[in-house]
Amino acid sequence: MSTTVLAHAAAGTNAALLKISGLRMMLPQREIRALESGDSIVQLDAAPHSVGWLQHAQQRCPVYCLSQDLSLLPAAPPERRACVLLSAGAGYVGILCDDVSIAAQSQEQQHELPLAMRLPGTPVLALMAMGDEGIVCLTSAEQLVAHVVRLAGM
Question: Domain range holding 142?
């Protein structure tokens, strides 16, 4: 299993749970640089394949909207109310989510990704059973940003 997953999976470590349609993705809370309202997104002059941009740390940051199957959507559904900003090189990339919450995770609940699900470029590093949330996909900001960059052709 990836050391990135193990690094943020220690018992008691805070993680951010991103809800995107029926998909639940978890990454270390410390990897989220900012949380913004989806209402703050400016759509004018959006970068290719993005749904708009946000101003953060005196930079213009593109915002992307993923579907449940992790493909890019051309427009944001109205339920996407939160935007997490993740580091991307010298800048930031925003990912729209239905909801973002903080949870503690336990290493014992993690499962390696089945061979059939290990697709090239997937941002999913492992799976975890999480009570009421069901199955959660573990990822990292680095993996998620790399996935969006590949899809957007940046």
Answer: 3-152
**AA identity, residue 124:** V
CATH number of the domain where residue 117 is located: 2.40.50.180
The phi, psi pair for 109, rounded to 5°, reads -90, -5
Reported confidence tier of residue 9, pLDDT bands at 50, 70, 90: very low
What is the token pair recorded at 147?
A: 């996935």
Element (H, E) at 141: helix 141-152
> 45: alpha, beta or left, given left = phi > 0 and alpha = psi -120 to 50?
left
Number of domains making up the chain: 1
Exposure letters 114-129 (e unless 16+ CB within 10 A, then b): eeeeeeeeebbbbbbe
* Cα gap 5→150, rounded to integer Å: 21
**Tokens for 103?**
């949870």
pTM for this model (two decimals): 0.86
Report how far residue 58's alpha carbon sits from residue 74's, in angstroms, rounded to the nearest whole number.
Answer: 26
Q: Give me 90's structure tokens.
A: 């010298």
Average pLDDT in the 83-90 region? 93
